[in-house]
Design a protein that fits this description.
mainly alpha, 5 helices, about 0% strand, globular, binds iron/sulfur cluster
Length: about 100
């Protein structure tokens, strides 16, 4: 599902070696970038069987990936995690 996007990230210095083990290699990209309101169940099922789920999810979170299913999570789910991390970081700073 990554193609040229991953190549561009690698050119910028991101370590994307984990994608060599991506369970979604060869899968239909439309599953991972569904139209609004379409089911994400199949894509998330593929992710849950993926050995690099954690690396993929972390990459999508830190790079603020706006679209698609990464690490079995939608953008909305990843945004929630980013918010939680921001709140935790702010609390630590305040102590
Ligand atoms: S977690 Fe999902 S999107 Fe990420 S590499 Fe694995 S199968 Fe692909």
């Amino acid at each position: 599902m990554f193609g040229e996007f991953i190549e561009a990230l690698q050119a910028e210095g991101f370590d994307m070696s984990w994608q060599d083990f991506a369970n979604c290699r060869g899968a239909d990209p439309d599953l991972f970038f569904p139209e609004r309101g379409a089911s994400t169940r199949t894509a998330k099922g593929i992710c849950r069987e993926c050995t690099v789920l954690d690396e993929c999810l972390e990459f999508a979170i830190v790079s603020s990936e706006k679209f698609g299913i990464w690490g079995a999570m939608s953008e909305r789910e990843r945004r929630r995690i980013r918010k939680e991390r921001q709140v935790t970081a702010a609390r630590r700073k305040a102590v």
